[in-house]
Amino acid sequence: MSTAEGSSPRRPTLDPASAAIRNAVRAALAAADETTAGSSDAVPAVKDPSVPGAIVGVSGGADSMALLHAVAFLHRRGEVRARAVTVDHGLQTVTAEVAERVAATSESWGVPADVATVSIEAGEEGLEAAARTARYAALETARVEAGADWILTAHTRSDQAETVLLGLMRGSGTRSLAGMSPVSGHLMRPLLGLDRDQTEASCTAQGIEIWNDPMNDDTAFTRVRARQLLAGLETELGQPITANLARTADLCRADADFIDDRAEAAGQRIRGAASVPVEDFTALDDAVLSRVVRDWMISLGVPGQNLGAKRVAELCSLIRDRKRGRLSLPGDTEVIVSDGHAVFQLAAKAR
């Protein structure tokens, strides 16, 4: 059908999923700009400080490619100054090729791109955690070098639900059940209010080539099993479990933030002290005490990954009891409660 004489050609209608993603990114950047206005931590990276700078973490999957496509649109409009970074973990032979292809796609959309290659050594934390740590470190390095305000990642409501489910499986507390925060430091997750189905729909509608990482289907990884379990539960129970778990995260996050603020204030005078009056602990509510005690141990060099809820609860119980007692801790250390003080020291066998 030809365009009527004198009229302008109509722009193609944007599909609902892509529109939702663009709006989510816009809203997240606008909200963050209001929150951080006047912050001395900001690095003036461009002549116009009203335009935020962002590093977009892109893996090549549907979530991150849909995010990059939306950010590229905003970048071309001058609403954000973006740069894409693909982190190649080197865990599969094809990843180097995928990273280069993603970078080329980003450049074709008008967004400059880099490939960051990292080496992964899986220690006690496991392969997934080691890869995540290396990835965020590479993205933060890119952010600092570019003088950008934010790192954008493509975590969705589906990822949030999986995170909460994993926390439930571990028997974790409120902070773990709070899931991922929309903004944490310089890290922003603008798609937490959207589902994975929407990012996939956006890629389909826009003809975006995506990479389906086979590791996302490898049931050797706990998160993959959690993802499959969630899908099965929604089918079996006929309930929107993904949305409900994500809402649980929002509710828990508000509670956890409130308690963490109180614990931070209470722990300032305790942090780093080898000997603390027991009364400084026992005056605290249980929810605050557990956080303060854990922070106290970490401030004295006890590895956080070795301080599970059970060990922290044992130490809190020892302190609450006020009687003389001793509790062994990781790293050949111990806490002794005696004469009204809780004393952290090397264990006797290590001296």
TrEMBL record:
One of its GO terms (molecular function) is tRNA(Ile)-lysidine synthase activity. Its EC number is 6.3.4.19. It comes from the Bacteria. It catalyses: cytidine(34) in tRNA(Ile2) + L-lysine + ATP = lysidine(34) in tRNA(Ile2) + AMP + diphosphate + H(+). One of its GO terms (cellular component) is cytoplasm. The keyword ATP-binding applies. The keyword Ligase applies. ATP binds at residues 59-64. InterPro entries: Rossmann-like_a/b/a_fold (IPR014729), TilS/TtcA_N (IPR011063), tRNA_Ile_lys_synt (IPR012094), tRNA_Ile_lys_synt_N (IPR012795). The N-terminal region contains the highly conserved SGGXDS motif, predicted to be a P-loop motif involved in ATP binding. NCBIfam families: lysidine_TilS_N. Belongs to the tRNA(Ile)-lysidine synthase family. This is tRNA(Ile)-lysidine synthase. The lineage of its organism: Bacteria, Bacillati, Actinomycetota, Actinomycetes, Micrococcales.
